[in-house]
């Protein structure tokens, strides 16, 4: 894939409360998701690879930190959300690409690909998973690695998700929108659908922002990886590299091309 910051499959953002909500959440993303053990796990891998692709890079926190820590090689972050990528672009010494994983066309250019912050779970359909994993496999050089995590479905973490108190966000003209985050959670097979409800006080109307996360069990995950020509090298249940068990919160995987 050539270096570029727009792709033909990118739709312009629609105006309205849902876009405003995404923008405001992107602005606050780093504050709401501070640096933690998962980032340290990935930073170590990034610092030991000469060319790195961060798929679903969000605000670019990991690659920003890698440059700050002295990474001299090629760093590339890809994300389909323009609001997130706008935050990432504060550092111009990283390539930022606005695209989905499935539309990547790099050919054996990276020593390491990562998907962090549960970005992998946003690949919801079988087709998106298959196409994205094939694109990851193609982007890796021989001896390259793909590291990512997905939440373990066995402890059913969504049952403990609560949206908390409503939050208020304000648009550029001063209009306030009230957001009830995670107002409704619906589980269908291995996909968790999350709805957040946005209300402009006084307008009488509500808008619903939808998101979905796929929860693959370890066997199904291994099958998707194998079909894409990837084999699991290492797998852990938590960021301390403890073994994966039924009670583990995460399925952390480091895979390589077969
Ligand atoms: C929870 S954020 C994680 C961001 C970042 N990796 C981190 O750890 O802070 C998930 C990211 O995945 C991105 N994403 C969603 N669908 C994607 C896809 N099909 N391909 C690549 N990235 C995707 C979202 O836009 C979002 O920025």
Question: What's this model, at a glance?
Answer:
The protein has 258 residues and is α/β, with parallel strands linked by helices. It is built from 6 helices and 11 strands.
- The CATH architecture of the largest domain comes to 3-Layer(aba) Sandwich
- The low-pLDDT segments are 1-9
Mean pLDDT: 92
Radius of gyration based on Cα positions: 19 Å
Q: What structural category arises from helix and sheet content?
A: alpha/beta
Q: Briefly, what CATH class of the largest domain?
A: Alpha Beta
The main β sheet shows up as: 7 strands, mixed
Total beta strands: 11
**Count of DSSP-assigned helices:** 6
Domains (count):
2
Helix content: 25-40%
Indicate the overall shape.
globular
CATH topology of the largest domain: Rossmann fold
Q: What share of the residues does DSSP label as strand, in percent?
A: 25-35%
What's the structural blueprint in terms of helices and strands?
Blueprint: H1 17-32, H2 37-47, E1 51-55, H3 61-68, E2 74-79, H4 82-88, E3 95-98, E4 110-115, H5 126-139, E5 140-151, E6 167-170, E7 176-188, E8 191-199, E9 206-214, H6 218-227, E10 230-236, E11 250-257
Parallel strand pairs: 1-2, 1-4, 2-3, 4-5
Antiparallel strand pairs: 5-11, 6-7, 7-8, 8-9, 10-11
Helix pairs in contact: 2-3
The protein binds S-adenosylmethionine (SAM).
S-adenosylmethionine (SAM) binds next to loops.
